[in-house]
Design a protein that fits this description.
Radius of gyration: 16 Å
Number of helices: 8
Structural class: mainly alpha
Strand order of the largest sheet: 1-2
Order of helices and strands: HHHHHHHEEH
Shape: globular
CATH superfamily: dinb family like domain
CATH topology: Four Helix Bundle (Hemerythrin (Met), subunit A)
Number of strands: 2
CATH class: Mainly Alpha
Number of domains: 1
Oligomer: single chain
Largest sheet: 2 strands, antiparallel
């Protein structure tokens, strides 16, 4: 198994978590926050997808799916086009309120497709290519891709936890 295959498997697992976390939920469930400062499934899913889109497009030298395929327009969020959710506060989190899971899943599918296409075409030597020298040691493509996986899995796990809360507490069921 190649490095690209291992990375593609990890990104595929994130995709599965995104679908399992959002599929079949109402807008109310996607926006549910157990307390005012908490993140919602909608925001967590949007954010992890934005991070993957931003970082993989930077590595591959391609335009982000967010702007290139007008997911930014479809979401209609009041954020700067470059916003990924990093540094967002509670009010920002509350802005991410899609009417259902299709928008979140659709955007994630498009980004995942871009990620897997990059990985399939990636030169094996690319994993060692330095992309950020501001760190010690400098960050390579491989390190950045693993960093995105780590971030995405954490947020996808948080979304799964919230979904479990919604189901166990019967949030929004009257």
């Amino acid at each position: 198994m190649t490095t690209a295959n291992i990375l593609a498997d990890a990104y595929g697992r994130i995709r599965e978590l995104v679908i399992k976390s959002t599929e079949g939920l109402s807008a109310q469930h996607l926006a549910y926050r157990p307390e005012p400062g908490a993140n919602s499934i909608a925001w967590l899913t949007w954010h992890l997808t934005r991070i993957q889109d931003d970082h993989v497009s930077e590595i591959s030298g391609s335009e982000q799916v967010w702007t290139g395929e007008d997911w930014m327009g479809r979401f209609g969020l009041p954020f700067d086009p470059a916003a990924t959710g990093y540094g967002h506060g509670p009010a920002d989190v509350g802005q991410v309120q899609p009417q259902g899971p299709d928008l979140l899943i659709g955007y994630h599918e498009a980004v995942w497709g871009n990620t897997t296409a990059y990985l399939a075409a990636m030169d094996p030597a690319d994993v060692d290519r330095v992309i950020d020298e501001s760190y010690d040691p400098p960050v390579t493509v491989g390190v950045r891709l693993v960093s995105v996986i780590s971030d995405n899995i954490q947020h996808a796990g948080q979304a799964r936890y919230l979904r479990g809360m919604i189901e166990r507490l019967r949030v929004g069921s009257g």
